[in-house]
Amino acid sequence: SQAPVNVTVTGAAGQIGYALLFRIASGQLLGQDVPVKLRLLEIPQAVKAAEGTAMELEDGAFPLLAGTDIFDDPKQAFEGTNIALLVGARPRSKGMERGDLLEANGGIFKPQGEAINAGAADDVKVLVVGNPANTNALIARSHAPDVPADRFTAMTRLDHNRALAQLAKKLGVPVTELKKVAIWGNHSATQYPSVQHAEFGGKKIADAVDQAWLENDFIPTVAKRGAAIIEARGLSSAASAASAAIDHVYTWVNGTPAGDWTSAAVVSDGSYGVPEGLISSFPVTAKDGKYEIVQGLEIDDFSRARIDASVAELVEERDTVQKLGLI
Ligand code: NAX
């Protein structure tokens, strides 16, 4: 039988971790024929809570779960890892400026990048979920020079799924009918959920909804959905975020269907005027275990302005972490 795939999850004792770990253990991350070994990373104060989660994982008696190990040292947690899910991050506390937030996260993602560089498996794939996800991924990547750039990604799949759900509701069709929706830019309120190329049942979505709905309803609803969830639940999105992380990795490994794409923040090669090296969301396809930016799309003026605005924010974040010496 196949050797287990090592999956490292950081922030394992947090709320996304709690939703994510059971789905990984049940085989939804990699498939129903792939055994997994979990490596949980937490800060020392949260190791006990992670141990509690590990007890519950044991109690699930998951046929595909080959074991769970808990660490408070990134070097150990990423040793031999094939899939690294970087969920734990420093949240913004009251009165914290954006620069302080980036700096605090640099203290987390720099050593994690170094540990991935030093000890991860040759085929490692990294997904950063912890916010600010794109720039945290940029920091980790810049400290892992021996890992190919295309192994570092950040999550905009939740935004993509939110966009699918809103469109399905508006058009009165199942999400399975929707194709070629895309999230561009930063995983933040500046993100651009685009339907410029999107289709439903072979028709153009842009012809079926009016521009005012797109601008005043759809785009802000998707971009501000995280805040709406906090307002309703009193807690930030967790199960939906875990679900999107599962989707992101499953697609990365198993591919996108012909005639469709998905969204992920990947290292820019300069496509669509996005500066090379930035980790920005694009429409992507996956094949043979690689995400690739969809090429050759015509970008209309509305999309151009929205993409540029979100990319400008990413450039600003990159410049800030550069000045702080974090990349
Ligand atoms: P929680 O605060 O519940 O859990 C975070 C966990 O990370 C805590 O247990 C904490 O001890 C741990 N942690 C902190 N520093 C660590 C370190 N250096 N090494 C290992 N573990 C560490 O947050 P949760 O709700 O689980 O959210 C986790 C992250 O996901 C947050 O940054 C959040 O903003 C981000 N999100 C990103 C989303 C996306 O679409 N990209 C959507 C959901 C979510 O908001």
Automatic annotation (TrEMBL):
Keywords: NAD, Oxidoreductase, Tricarboxylic acid cycle
InterPro entries per record: L-lactate/malate_DH, Lactate/malate_DH_C, Lactate/malate_DH_N, Lactate_DH/Glyco_Ohase_4_C, Malate_DH_AS, Malate_DH_type2, NAD(P)-bd_dom_sf
NAD listed as a keyword: yes
Domain Lactate/malate dehydrogenase N-terminal, chain residue ranges per copy: 6-145
UniProt key word Oxidoreductase: yes
Swiss-Prot/TrEMBL catalytic activity: (S)-malate + NAD(+) = oxaloacetate + NADH + H(+)
Span of domain Lactate/malate dehydrogenase C-terminal: 156-322
Record GO biological process: malate metabolic process; tricarboxylic acid cycle
GO molecular function: L-malate dehydrogenase (NAD+) activity
One Pfam short name: Ldh_1_N
Record-annotated active site: 187
Residues reported in the UniProt entry to bind substrate: 92, 98, 131, 162
Annotated NAD(+) binding sites: 11-17, 105, 112, 129-131
EC number: 1.1.1.37
Top EC class of this enzyme: oxidoreductase
CDD domains assigned to the protein according to its UniProt record, in alphabetical order: MDH_chloroplast-like (cd01338)
PANTHER family: MALATE DEHYDROGENASE
Family: Belongs to the LDH/MDH superfamily. MDH type 2 family.
Function: Catalyzes the reversible oxidation of malate to oxaloacetate.
Name used for this protein in its record: Malate dehydrogenase
Organism: Amycolatopsis australiensis
Taxonomic classification: Bacteria, Bacillati, Actinomycetota, Actinomycetes, Pseudonocardiales
